[in-house]
User: Fold these one by one.
Assistant:
Number 1:
Amino acid sequence: MITATGLTKRYGSTAAVDHLTFEVKPGIVTGFLGPNGAGKTTSMRLILGLDAATEGSVTINGQSYRDKKAPMQEVGALIDPSAVHGGRSAYHHLLWQAQAGSLPRQRVDDVLDMVGLTEVAGKKVG
Ligand SMILES: Nc1ncnc2c1ncn2[C@@H]1O[C@H](COP(=O)(O)OP(=O)(O)OP(=O)(O)O)[C@@H](O)[C@H]1O
Ligand SMILES: [Mg+2]
């Protein structure tokens, strides 16, 4: 469960996120929509602890991302698809993440299968 309460981020006079309150429940796919500049990316950065909130808070399973001892065992994120190394395969992209996060190698095959990418897992993503 992701819980945002009065989440607010200001950059000078710009309110990028303005008192946002929501819950994302486990086991369902939740879309997060809004026009350009609505604050979607900023909200995700706040969820992941990449930016600090000006006001309010956000937790994942009751704890902030930064307080988690092994965050990658609970949270996966891809904010900027172009940040993925084009010369790396989907398998190797997930493998370094699994190794960095102390996840079992089997998890890589499991998620590739889950999203239907097993057949092309060895192709360079670029
Ligand atoms: N680092 C920053 N410094 C100053 N202003 C910022 C910064 N990051 C975002 N903003 C501003 O905050 C607002 C929200 O931006 P954000 O990138 O979160 O929107 P978005 O919903 O992800 O937009 P898009 O659909 O274009 O990706 C915008 O007005 C943006 O210009
Ligand atoms: Mg964005």
Number 2:
Amino acid sequence: MIQPEKRLEILSKIPDREYSDIWDTCCDHGKLGYKLIREFPNALIHFNDIVPHIVEKLNTKLYNVPNERYTLNTLDARDIKVSNDNTLIYICGIGGKMAIEIVNDLVNGNSHDFELILCTHYHQYELRESLRELNFQLIKSDLIVHQGQQYETIYISKTRGSEIPKYSEELFNKDCEKRISYFQKSMNHYKKNSEYSQISKEIYAYYKVLLS
Ligand SMILES: C[S@@+](CC[C@H](N)C(=O)[O-])C[C@H]1O[C@@H](n2cnc3c(N)ncnc32)[C@H](O)[C@@H]1O
């Protein structure tokens, strides 16, 4: 089974370019941001969590990191203001529904563009619909399974990439057991709901064909 550190290691290596500012929002333990400090020596890393004592603790944890390499921010991720277009924002380890709210508010509250890496569980269809409506495009995606939790990871931008697939179908691989199991689980979920919702019916039909 993939260890927490391994998931964060994968996340820290996703960016394919340099940024001047990188936000680790909903940072909790701060381990992702800590890895980003090492991975991106030219970027300013912004740690953010909504819980004050979490952010206070980070002060101690980062004792060996020069102050000019990072900022600590106790605020709702929805209220983050980015200072330039050369910014990447990570939103990881939360549910898809909360990610939808945070990304919508970030887009509405900022005049600068920014790129995003989301690593979320549940409500992937709704999340992708929302990102498509906001005109985000997909740079790359992955499926990470960590402590029994399945996370879709998507790296997105408004200025580059390709259309975000609606049903996460780019993640399917008929030769990979992990991915087949992910899509089977999703298919069963939509099958259960297909009696009550047209969209669930459509997604169920799509996955049935994909897995056949
Ligand atoms: C499960 S932890 C995720 C930690 C880390 N990002 C990871 O992927 O391992 C979720 C964190 O999100 C924080 N959080 C929840 N809602 C938030 C919001 N609106 N703005 C900022 N932080 C938030 C919580 O306080 C908690 O520390």
